[in-house]
Design brief:
Layout (H helix, E strand, L loop, with lengths): L11 E4 L2 E8 L4 E8 L4 E6 L9 H12 L2 E6 L4 H4 L8 H15 L10 E6 L1 H12 L4 E7 L17 E6 L3 H13 L4 E6 L11 H18 L7 E5 L2
Parallel strand pairs: 4-5, 4-6, 6-7, 7-8, 8-9, 9-10
Antiparallel strand pairs: 1-2, 2-3, 3-5
Helix pairs in contact: 1-6, 3-4
Length: 239
C-alpha cells in the first residue's frame, strides 16, 4: 500500500473547552474525529465492531464522557465504504487490528496528542481487534476497556495481554457473559469484569450506558492517569 499524508487542513470545532477535528488516517484515508479537551491527560482510541463506525451514538456518548475527564478521544472508521459491503470484513480481526495499529502510529505523530498515555475502547468485534493490536504495540497501550465485546475472538493474543483490561457486559447478554468470562481467565495483567444489571448487548436500557461511562472513565483515570496503579484481579457482578 502507498502511504498518503494525513489531512493537512482538518476543520477545528471548539466548544466547551474541547477542540474537534475531522481527520484522515493514512495509508488509505480512514475518516475519523479527534476530540482534544484543554490540558488533556490521556488519549483513548475507539475500536468499533459489527459494522458500526465513528458515528455510533453509544460510543460517541462514552467519548464525550471521557472528554469531560480531560481525556482526548479518537473515533474513526476501520473500514472503507467499499469494504463495509463485504460482511466478512467485520469479523476480520487481523485486518481491524492492522487499521488500529495504523491509527495509533498516526496519533503518535499528531502534535496535539503525541506522547499522551494511550487507551483503547473496543465494542463487539472491535474489542478483539483492540486486544490483538495491544499485543502488537508492546507497552504503548496503557489500558483497554471492552463494552459488550467479543474478546474471545482475539485468539492467542489473549495469552500475551498484560495491559490492564476491563470487560463490561450487560447482565441480560447471557451468551456474551460466558465468552467474556472465558477470555477474562486468560488475561495476564490487571483485569476486571463488570456486569451491568439488566442491560442487553447494546446497553439501551435506562442508565445502562451511564454505568458503562462511569466504569470506563474510572478505569482509564486509574490506569492511564494515575501513577500509583497496582495490578489487581477482580470479577464483580452487581446482579
Amino acid at each position: 500500500m502507498i502511504d498518503s499524508a494525513p489531512d493537512a487542513s482538518p476543520t477545528p470545532r471548539a466548544g466547551r473547552g474541547v477542540e474537534e477535528r475531522e481527520i484522515s488516517i493514512p495509508p488509505i484515508g480512514l475518516a475519523g474525529d479527534l476530540r482534544v479537551p484543554s490540558a488533556a491527560k490521556a488519549i483513548v482510541a475507539f475500536v468499533h465492531g459489527s459494522g458500526s463506525g465513528r458515528l455510533s451514538p453509544r460510543n460517541r456518548s462514552v467519548a464525550e464522557a471521557l472528554n469531560r475527564h480531560r481525556i482526548a478521544t479518537l473515533l474513526f472508521d476501520l473500514l472503507t465504504v467499499a469494504e463495509e459491503s463485504d460482511r466478512a470484513n467485520v469479523f476480520d480481526i487481523p485486518l481491524l487490528a492492522e487499521r488500529l495499529v495504523a491509527a495509533v502510529r498516526w496519533l503518535d505523530q499528531e502534535p496535539a496528542v503525541a506522547g499522551l498515555p494511550l487507551g483503547l475502547f473496543g465494542a463487539s468485534t472491535g474489542a478483539a481487534a483492540a486486544l490483538v493490536a495491544a499485543a502488537q504495540l508492546d507497552d504503548r497501550v496503557g489500558a483497554i476497556v471492552s463494552r459488550g465485546g467479543r474478546p474471545d475472538l482475539a485468539g492467542r493474543a489473549l495469552d500475551r495481554i498484560s495491559v490492564p483490561t476491563l470487560l463490561i457486559v450487560g447482565g441480560a447478554d447471557v451468551p456474551v457473559i460466558e465468552l467474556n468470562r472465558q477470555a477474562f481467565a486468560r488475561l495476564r495483567g490487571a483485569k476486571a469484569l463488570e456486569i451491568v444489571p439488566g442491560a442487553s448487548h447494546l446497553f439501551p436500557e435506562r442508565r445502562a450506558l451511564e454505568a458503562v461511562m462511569g466504569h470506563a472513565a474510572a478505569w482509564f483515570e486509574h490506569h492511564l492517569v494515575s501513577s500509583a496503579a497496582e495490578p489487581v484481579e477482580t470479577a464483580r457482578s452487581k446482579q
